[in-house]
Amino acid sequence: MIAIPSIAFGGFSGSAKDVTAHQRDGRSILTVRSWPTGQTTNTQVVRRSSMSKITKSYRNLTPVQMQKWEHLAEQASGVSVFGQKAELSGINLYVRLNVNRVMAGESMISDAPISLSSVPGASYRRAVVSPSLVILQGIKHQPLPYKLVVKMSAAVSPGVSNGWSKTVIITSNAEDDWGEADLTTLYTNTIGITPEVGQKVFVEVYWMNTATGETGQDKRDCVICLTDEEATALVGGSRIHYTEDDIKPKSTVTDCQIDFSTGAPVIYFDIISQGMDGVLQSMIYSNKEILKEMVGNSYVLCRSCLDDIYIFVENTVEIRKSSYLGDYFQLNPGKVEGELGTEVFGVGVLV
Description:
Elements: E1 14-16, E2 19-24, E3 27-32, H1 42-57, H2 63-76, E4 78-79, E5 85-86, H3 90-103, E6 126-130, E7 133-137, E8 146-152, E9 168-171, E10 180-182, H4 184-191, E11 200-209, E12 219-224, H5 228-235, E13 241-243, E14 253-259, E15 266-273, E16 282-285, E17 296-304, E18 312-322, E19 326-333, E20 342-350
Antiparallel strand pairs: 1-2, 2-3, 4-5, 6-7, 7-10, 8-9, 8-11, 11-12, 13-14, 14-15, 15-20, 16-19, 17-18, 17-20, 18-19
Helix pairs in contact: 1-3, 2-3
């Protein structure tokens, strides 16, 4: 028999078919089981499995740990749209934060955070989607411990007005490199198919605090898939960018960020130079071709990698194309006290 609410009686509880009744604060509450709609994706299956595992793990906590989660949940309780306090239990908060952490590649936490803090809201200038390009531009960067989580949907008809329920996590740690996140490969690998021109893609972006699992206010967007030509023109063409992935093993640097994308004769450097053969000089041998317009010398600041020494000197970066050595960057720092390692950073004019 299905329980039906009535002003004539109360105190009933139990489940019948899809309806469950229970008592809360002296009131009889009826809930109806919800069923997922649409095709279940692999990402959704993983998330549901993870949530089930995390929920069960709560029973393994000590009474003291549970008590701290309950105390934190009381602090986290907010106000609902009806003006009544929105109650949050310790297990609810434990599952919510740990699910966020696990989906972002972090380990679960058993001890409740000392307190919860405000997480910045996500902000970016625009999202661009084409059959071979998916990118976010103008991202307002946040430092660690924040990670940028991006959720996107498969392309749907442009007539669809609400597709947020169809979004899945593309990445839980988007690299907002220079305010830009290239999600092309991540999107294709996750969704499985590329969008068609004229279709609509729903986007949801938010920051997550990896220390606690808290998330900030999300930014939602829906974009129409452009042609590759339109998308390339909109984002300003391909970036000329060199990282650790673009250099050969024999290079004598550990960290490498070189960007030449402004169209002006300036290059941005962020490099940790290890030196070689007992001198400060370092070599970066590039796997990617160095463009002819980059060949020359650039002057940029460098300093010792020792934390207690801040002697800034000029560093000359020679950028060359050689039939013998290949394409390379040669770092020639000035006199720096301390160990050989130096940090080369900032903008250098190309001459």
